[in-house]
Amino acid sequence: MARKPEAERRSEIIDATIREIGATGNLNVTVGQIAKSAGVSSGLAFHYFKDKDTLFLAAMRTILTNYRRDVSILMKGATTPEKRLEAIANASFGLTSFRREAISAWVNFYALALRSPDARRLLYIYQRRLHSNLVYTLRPTCGARAPDVARRIGGLIDGLYLRYALDPQATDGSEGADHILRAARAEQTELHANDAMSVRDEDPNPMDPIAKPQELNDNA
Amino acid sequence: MARKPEAERRSEIIDATIREIGATGNLNVTVGQIAKSAGVSSGLAFHYFKDKDTLFLAAMRTILTNYRRDVSILMKGATTPEKRLEAIANASFGLTSFRREAISAWVNFYALALRSPDARRLLYIYQRRLHSNLVYTLRPTCGARAPDVARRIGGLIDGLYLRYALDPQATDGSEGADHILRAARAEQTELHANDAMSVRDEDPNPMDPIAKPQELNDNA
DNA sequence: TTATTAATTGATCAGTCAATCAATAATCAT
DNA sequence: ATGATTATTGATTGACTGATCAATTAATAA
């Protein structure tokens, strides 16, 4: 009936996908369900997305874009390293990323990455961007240790996200964000037995850290 | 044909389940596939496990049992707090837990926990046990901060596991284990800006830390 | 042996779903 | 208007699969 331009319909279908994944908690939602939730026929969903996996990936790209936007916004006002880290932490555990739909999408996305190279690529983009942002943020306080520390902070973000995401008693992610800041403070204190160990980690991956926060695009 | 006692067949079917999940990377393996891989008919799989989800949970219990066994073995020889933490780290990133099959099972298990209360319960058992072991291990060096630090180390284990598990370039998990130890060392250094913050975390969850490493059973 | 129990099969049912496609309806350009 | 283009439908197909069950076979006991 109601005719809409391609771009709008695409995003409506993507939104419906995220909604349905959030409602059921898994990727076994049928295209029919999704289409219905979007108020269109299943045929249209296939018209715009060649198959189900493509649709899921598009949905995940939207989630990642939202996350990136949050980071970007919160980073704007952050002037000190401490504030910048807080921005990253708050974006990771903030309302956008911690809604049920985003959580479902994320957790299932990890599982999808196990069998879909496309999903894996997308996951790497997220990881690289996060790592890059963290290195940039940690450099002033950690110096050469920044890449090494960033790897732990990044891992901690993912791990705690998973924890609190799967904990029905956790109402929001603020506790997760607190932990990130505490971990970073611990890593940033001067006297580290670690220093000796992490010398070899001076820029372990030369391709990797770029001076400024990343704005990579998700395609490819 | 070949007749075997219940216990043996059960574990053969469970092993086949783990194998097939590992091979395909997702839970969409059919019971037929699993049965075939176990060398039995699909009917038998349903005879011993009332439905597919039950079978998956049984498989996951086996994975958790193997992990627990590894921790237990490695803990035996560990006398100092440092050695004990090393034991936990090595178990978490060791060969048993880092095989492709275990990785697939774990990642999909997280997704399953999103929709299955039974899976969620099982996941909590793992998390509580890990937390408990960490608190016990960290107490000597962290004192009152142990529960708080344990939450981060636990999260870091999960997060880094996910990272390296989904990284095809990572051959083993030894790098993950290294990170755990470094993070712990950072948290254990004396002069912490954190100390003031984490006072309120003195035993945040009274139900939680128990003096000795846990040997909870997985049922219920 | 014979009766009883336990293990195992495989065909079958009933339902589901991704993907296709021919047909229709709305919009636009001329 | 007219034709071309774009959006949209929904019926259909073809393949798949979880679960059931009646029948069969092997082991055990009496």
TrEMBL record, chains A, B:
Residues 7-67 form the HTH tetR-type domain. PANTHER family: HTH-TYPE TRANSCRIPTIONAL REGULATOR BETI, HTH-TYPE TRANSCRIPTIONAL REGULATOR RUTR. Repressor involved in choline regulation of the bet genes. Repressor involved in the biosynthesis of the osmoprotectant glycine betaine. It represses transcription of the choline transporter BetT and the genes of BetAB involved in the synthesis of glycine betaine. It comes from the Bacteria. GO terms for biological process: glycine betaine biosynthetic process from choline; negative regulation of DNA-templated transcription. This is HTH-type transcriptional regulator BetI. Residues 30-49 bind DNA. GO terms for molecular function: DNA-binding transcription factor activity; transcription cis-regulatory region binding. SUPFAM superfamilies: Homeodomain-like, Tetracyclin repressor-like, C-terminal domain. Residues 191-220 are annotated as: Disordered. Residues 191-203 have a biased composition (Basic and acidic residues). InterPro entries: BetI_C (IPR039538), Homeodomain-like_sf (IPR009057), HTH-type_TetR-like_transc_reg (IPR050109), HTH_TetR (IPR001647), Tet_transcr_reg_TetR-rel_C_sf (IPR036271), Tscrpt_rep_BetI (IPR017757). Keywords: DNA-binding, Repressor, Transcription, Transcription regulation. Pathway: Amine and polyamine biosynthesis; betaine biosynthesis via choline pathway [regulation].
